[in-house]
Design a protein that fits this description.
The protein is of the alpha/beta class. It is built from twelve helices and 19 strands.
Length: 384
């Protein structure tokens, strides 16, 4: 008898109404589908990670992240197609290739903060036969209500006339949609993800967000900046915009029309450390302003300013210095930075960047422009 595998399956269609190209949107600089792939790969007990998709770009991104891509037919790729149909198709494809699937971990890429350790525990429960189905949920002590037929509020999980303290209330669990783990045979027999002995896998409340609209996407990006560790950035050169990066994007203009801006001494120290480490740096600015040139002299960093075409200027600077674009970290904040960000290996955004810049960024910093963002980037570039 063949050894039965535990397979994580991530359905990821190309179409989405609430958030265009949702499964490729970045949270913490990482596409949502890749975040799900990484969570599954990091979970002990998962033997294979597969992505079911109808989209070429999602397929390419998923394969680059190490997932097995299963091409989903058009008939089960529309808005009305169920997740169950995608899962069954994936199982048929895998088993047709000789892979005996014993346990399925169904992950949804729209949940960006899937805890790999909790997923691993859920997999262990099903593999050991202690449960047939396990799903992620957050504990809640909330008072739930619904509107009746006449619009009147009705209490659901409590007696409205009694208001017990939190410690005296029974907790309930709210399904998060992040993952479901179940036996493949039981799923085929029931056609549903809940069957037999069903158990709850409790996840931390802050991870329990599912992205269905732009507002939730913005919340997820903020949570990523607050909760996730800052990984090193293996760049060999640093290029930054000026306004909104070295400054807070405001200017004081005196009666003679001279501009003054506020910069961070902390950023200045970071640039000094970068310079001592021998890492090339450039300030690339659209503004033709003496304050940019003066700051560059102070930092002892070359400046290109009055640049309308940042992409061409950056390509030329990199070529002159013999620097591969893939080895450059570019720090920006607004839409005029996008062409440059799209050609480098490490597009980085300040925390308060324009939404389009946040979407393009591979890394989103925790600090805002003029408030230590440059220093934060440099500390992640410098080893140790």
């Amino acid at each position: 008898m063949k050894k039965q595998s535990t397979v994580a399956i991530i359905p990821a269609r190309g179409g989405s109404k609430g958030v265009p190209r949702k499964n490729l949107q970045r949270v913490g600089g990482i596409p949502l589908v890749v975040r799900a792939i990484r969570a599954a790969s990091d979970a002990d007990g998962v033997d294979l990670v597969a992505v079911s998709t109808d989209d070429e770009e999602i397929a390419a991104v998923s394969a680059a992240a190490g997932a097995r891509v299963i091409r989903r037919p058009a008939g089960i790729s529309g808005d009305t197609a169920s997740s169950e149909s995608a899962l069954l198709h994936a199982l048929d494809e895998l088993e047709g290739e000789g892979i005996a699937v014993g346990v399925v971990a169904f992950l949804q890429a729209t949940s960006p903060f899937i805890p790999a350790d909790v997923l691993a525990d859920a997999v262990a429960e099903v593999r050991a036969g202690r449960a047939d189905s396990v799903f992620s949920a957050q504990e809640t002590y909330g008072f739930l209500w619904r509107e009746g037929g006449d619009g009147a509020a009705e209490a659901i999980n409590h007696d409205a006339a009694v208001r017990p303290r939190r410690q005296d209330r029974e907790p309930h669990h709210l399904e998060t949609g992040a993952f479901y783990v179940f036996s493949a045979a039981g799923f085929r027999a029931s056609g549903h993800r809940f069957f037999g002995r069903t158990r709850i896998a409790a996840v931390p409340e802050w991870t329990a967000i599912e992205i269905d609209d732009e507002h939730q996407l913005r919340i997820a990006r903020t949570l990523a900046a607050l909760h996730e560790p800052a990984h090193p950035i293996p760049a060999k050169a640093v290029v930054t915009d000026f306004d909104g990066v070295h400054t807070d994007d405001t200017a004081i203009i005196d009666a003679d029309g001279h501009e003054r801006v506020r910069v961070s001494r902390e950023d200045g120290m970071g640039v000094s450390l970068l310079r001592r480490a021998g890492v090339p740096m450039l300030i690339l600015s659209t503004e033709m302003n003496g304050v940019v040139r003066a700051r560059g002299r102070k930092l002892q960093v070359p400046v290109l300013h009055g640049i309308d075409d940042k992409e061409t200027a950056l390509r030329a600077w990199a070529a002159d210095g013999g620097i591969d674009l893939a080895d450059i970290a570019y720090l920006g904040n607004d839409v005029n930075d996008l062409p440059a960000m799209r050609i480098v290996g490490w597009p980085v955004a300040v925390a308060n960047a324009h939404p389009l810049v946040l979407e393009e960024a591979r890394v989103v910093l925790s600090r805002t422009g003029g408030n230590g963002a440059v220093r934060e980037l440099i500390e992640r570039v410098l080893p140790g």
